[in-house]
Please model this.
Amino acid sequence: MRPLSVVVRTGCDFFAWFMIVFGVNIVIHGYMTPGGGFQGGAIIATFLAFLLVAYGGKKVLSWVNEKIYEFLFEELGLICFFVLALLGIGNSFFYNFLASPLGAERTGIMSLISPAGTTVFMSIAVGIEVTGALSLVIIAMFRGIRQFAGPSLPEEEIGHDR
Amino acid sequence: MKKYIFIVSAIVLGALVCGALDNVHPYGDPGTALMDDYFLANSYKSLSTQNIVTSIVFDYRGFDTIGEAAVLFTAVCAVGALFREGRGRR
Amino acid sequence: MNGFVQLIVLMLLLISAFFALWFKDLISSVISLAVFSLMAALEFYMLQAPDVAIAEAAIGAGLSTAIYIIAVRACSGVKRRQGGGPK
Model:
């Protein structure tokens, strides 16, 4: 996949980071606005597809580090999710042990966290996991099709890429 | 011959779908269920999550979210197994 | 008024689904599939399900379009090397 023209790349430079900010906003406000972990993670993973379309494959694959997506995102998100689910095992699996009812008095460390309890942290964990999973799918697919692409096609910038 | 069979089956299927549209709820008038009423009454009061959908996904029905995470993990494993750079491929 | 807008969105949904099947060019077909996802997201939003609308817009119009385009480009590279293909 060859890089697109300089207009497209400048537009990508502007809007790609706003996309990440929007996705993180959706993830961490998942307990009170529409959205949640899955939706925000999908928006953050769109960032990589955006860069891949604008900048071409060779540059993006030299930028990203696949180990980060494998460990820090996918496995860390899943582990956090399961640990949060297991922490309430004294009552039941997936018991919301941090939540407090509406209007209840909250003291100490409980006053620092949201009254929604583990819902917030589970949303963030699922957001991290979905980000890693969808980005890994894109990276692995693009690495894979380079085996079939052949030795031709010089990597120069073109205006209208087909 | 094949075209006639296709046309007749399309007409029959369309008639069945149009007949089934009679049983759909009208717009803005959902049916009542006891679980819905429980969630709407208790989600904000006991968990204080403003978004009821999130409280269902991550709290009341958290076990289904594990299934969704497992589906994503299986998809990543399948893509990695299909597209990995093997030694015998090139 | 709401019913009128909904009728237009549903008509656009049908038209984009038809064009996704009708185009011979695969890139045009993928783009009209993205339009289909966008219209479905609008329809979900009008039916008061903003969660599903966000998921549909992010995955249907964003990610799956990129994945389809990657796959179509890979196949066109193979075709060009073997001397076949439309272009």
